[in-house]
Amino acid sequence: MTVTLNGKSFEVDAPAEGVTISNFVSRLEIGQAPVLVELNGEAILTREFDSRQIKDGDTVEVIRMVAGG
User: Fold this and answer.
1) Rg of the chain on CA atoms, in Å
2) What is the value of pTM for the model shown?
3) Strand 2-5, strand 59-64: pairing
4) Measured between alpha carbons, how far is 14 from 29 in angstroms, rounded to an integer?
5) 3-class DSSP state for residue 53?
6) Are 54 and 21 spatial neighbours (Cβ–Cβ below 8 Å)?
7) Are 63 and 36 in contact (CB under 8 A)?
8) What is the dihedral of CA 40, 24, 62, 67, to 10 degrees?
9) Domain 2-64 - what CATH class?
10) Chain centre to alpha carbon of residue 25
11) Which residue(s) pair with 63 in the sheet?
12) Where are the chain's structural domains?
């Protein structure tokens, strides 16, 4: 499956029905930092990560939240 991730084409080994946002984010290997996700222009709540599917052709923006001083 091919998606657009943060403006670039990204290949994901996934079934035709897609993968959950949680599964997708875990494949990115960005650690345990919290993330913000936008799917096809819609901001997705963290509590929806296990129920919302990313499918072939979708546009995904993933932003890692970092705090510091």
Assistant:
1) 12
2) 0.88
3) parallel
4) 16
5) strand
6) yes
7) yes
8) 150
9) alpha beta
10) 5
11) 36
12) 2-64
